[in-house]
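#structure-requests
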Amino acid sequence: MKVIVCSEIVNAVDEVQIIPYGYHKTSKGDFLCDDQSAAEVIKDFRKRQNDMVIDYEHQTLTGAEAPAAGWIKKLTYRGTEGIWAKVEWTDKAKAYINNKEYRYLSPVFLKDTKDNRVVKLINAALTNQPAIDGMVPLVNKEDEAVIKNKKSEVKPMKRVYEALGLSDGANEDDALREVMALTSAITEDTAYKDILKDIGLTPEATVSEVKATVLAMKQSHDSIETLTKEVMTLKAAMFKQDTETVVNSAISQGKIMPLQKPWALEYAAKDPEGFKLFVAKSPEVVPLKDITGKATKVDSTAIDKTQRTVNKQLGISDELWIKRGQHSPKGDSASKHTTEAK
């Protein structure tokens, strides 16, 4: 539907108001021009390659000879002042305007019947019959085709809105939000099914089955964790006992002194194999009698290196030394004197 309104032209200026801002009531229908409306009108206008015509008395719509009065070069939105047009007037139109033979500019536009918002500017005309005085809105074949196309576009969207469970007043933004919500829900449902599969349940599992399975898995995990701690504690105790045994053995062998036990325990704990190798290669540094508290049995026939050296210097053979039972000369002399005294 086209609604025609008029703006008074005082003189042939190159910028004129083409559609006033706000909601307007006319005898042939109401219309609204707001921010949303202006954005749609200007967006549609910018798609054009040719300038938009301004004729006389809407002759372009009637099919009669329709010379141009001017050309709309550009549309701009001035907020509460509405939509303005930058116009290039013909000399003849300038003369008409300056002579006040034409006083009003009447735009022709399409509006959305649902909310009465202006959505498309068709053209404009110089006129002396403003729409507010009862001018019948004009519709031509091109405009009817546009309206039919808009209706055919709306029907599929209406079916989409219904499928999404939206109300009649829904728009594309509402539909988009609903689709995004459904997408998110589908993603969550897929993730939920994957989790069910991982814990050995089917997609048909009830909430109770899921809870029971999860609790059982948690209890099993807790039991394993407790058992692991107990095993680790036992292993630590056994290791400590083994370390004590190895160190005590080294002390009993005379390889280390008792006062070295703290050091040996630390060494054996850090490097058990290294400590065992150390003990194997170490000489006996402490006589066994010092460890056990018992005298060590000594072979009476044994002669150490030092004694042998002394005996050699004194001219005593090993056989004589052993035969004499390692008695000192002083002892022998004492024995001799005792015998003679008898």
